[in-house]
Fold this protein.
Amino acid sequence: MVANDTTSMSNEPLLVVEDLKTHFHLKAGAVKAVDGVSLSLDRGKTIGIVGESGSGKTVLSRTIMGLNLGSNVHTEGSVHYQGNEILGLRAKQMRNYWGREISMIFQDPMTSLNPVVKIGRQVTEHLRHHLDMSKAEANDVALQLLHEVRIPEASERLNAYPHELSGGMRQRVCIAIALACGPKLLFADEPTTALDVTVQHQIMNLLGREQDDRDMAMVLVTHDLGVVAGRTDEIAVMYAGRVVERARTSDLFANVKMPYTEALLRSIPRTTQRSHTRLAAIPGRPPDLIHPPSGCSFSPRCAYAQDICHEEMPSLIEAGAGHVYRCHTPVGSNAATESFETNLAAGLPQAVSIKLHADAVAQQEGVA
Amino acid sequence: MAGTGKAHLRDSSEVMLRVEDLVVEFPVGGGNTVKAVSGISFDIKEGETLGLVGESGCGKSTTGKAIIQLPPPTSGSVTLGGTDLTALKGEGLRTKRTEIQMIFQDPISSLNPRRKVGRVVAEPLDVWGPHDKTEQKVVVDRLLELVGIDPEMASDKRPHEFSGGQCQRISIARALVTDPQLLICDEPVSALDVSVQAQILNLLEDLKERYNLTLVFIAHDLAVVKNISDRVAVMYLGKMCEVAEANTLYEEPAHPYTALLIDSVPEPDPAVEIDTEMVEDGDLPSPINPPSGCRFRTRCPIATDLCAAEEPGIRKVGEDHFVACHHPLVEPVEV
């Protein structure tokens, strides 16, 4: 590929995050929303950040963007963008990065657009501010951007207000705004969660194509493993503010190590299963981030947990090139099989739930 | 799609709920009307779960609300256990309506934030009895326990102290308190995480078994709908496209729209090839001025002149499998 000489030009990753922590100090104590996350992202690549609500995935991306403001926010660690430390920069300095270098699209396309400002001005605002374009120039570029994100009758849409567009169209406008100044890194925080499946498919295709055309890197934040499966190079699974498993996408799905990742995958209903297949739910809910459980934070909900899991936080273990996880009893290990049997015999709901699901699937296969 | 017809209706002696020629229109000023639902018919047997699927704006929620007469449909009939609900008014309708309950998409905003959870669940009892507070508490505690909420801990707390999944469980307890026959679930899991979604789906299946409930399950997620439904009806822009037994629908979709929906479901498997061609505008046409003939024709890959000229009727294409399409993907059965 042609990309070879550009990569030799700059071998260092576009974004390097090291031991990043974001704590919110409240009266009740410190909420450890992000608690020691490290990752890196190369130019033009996509990383998926996956986890349940409250796992810290949104706070992580907002911290990297420098959007967590407030006197009770405490951040630690480092974020290097193209070799420069950007963590802790003031908003005034971050403005050199926002839009031009790093950009973001959000979950709810209605609330992220200003309802009383016409689409045209919202798209051109960036161009005028960051790239010092004249009104006429900016209008031309805006029109071109709307064409690019496949908004029909783009010239008329420039004069429309957000409420006149459907959810999918609004998200296209948000993408146009985010791409306006040609960022090298795009954060997409649940970009399609509020949209229909058909529209989700279109928007993800659109993002993928823009990414190829612009050689732009993307951080795709979502709770849906289905969305990230075919569209990312690497996936980081987050739980209670930590990355609990990270691997290249194909490795992760082929060789799941972390019981939490496995549990997430198993709880998704599939169209390939027959109707009324018992689902393997994960009982309970994500932990309290002020007083996290001792040991592994997933242990209270884990079907493979042993005594050690409740006592000692597992360190990051390497399973292969670029594949790391945090677990004492990884999926497929003898320890996991043994503790699953013990937990099942003890009637732990997480183990029972898996058993019922497995039985239902086995029964179907028997019938088929 | 998108056609009218009743070939898919079963004998009225077998069914519990029958909806015929349902039309719901809303005036929007300037002499225009939004044609939210335009003549759909379906039926449900006792103990059956009917999934209603379609994109936003297809009229699936309007249909669910029209069943409980909120608001009453513009025309058509809704027959529950032999009584036509559209003919009822006032006290008669309110009494009959206790047999139908609804749960909604956003579990947090569907609970009154200023009331304690115990009161939220007991409120239907204030109207329908028992009025005695101790008797009410027995019923409420039993239901909260049933949906997996500890009544001791929960009754005196307010909704904001619970997570989305727990609030949805409380909504389910409230819906069951009048001992309904029919439960209409309007996107009950779309606001929840996958892990919690699985918990709620399992809970609904358990409750259904225990109380022999009949469910209308409205959702846009096809995998979720398949998991919980016995029969699935696909809607598009106020019309019925396809009705089939759940497994059949996914194995052999007969309507191009159903096929499009199924193809759009993201598979959690990186080995599955993604069709990256589809980026064009796939917006729903306006329900104020819907396309002539088959309403899906403007997005249909196999539409012909016939589709613009004539609205397809519902035809049988297999055992318990019906489609409204001029060019179905499964050969129709000659009757």
Q: What stands out?
A: Chain B has a mean pLDDT of 90. Chain B touches chain A through 55 residues (CB under 8 Å). Chain B is about 30% helix and 25% strand.
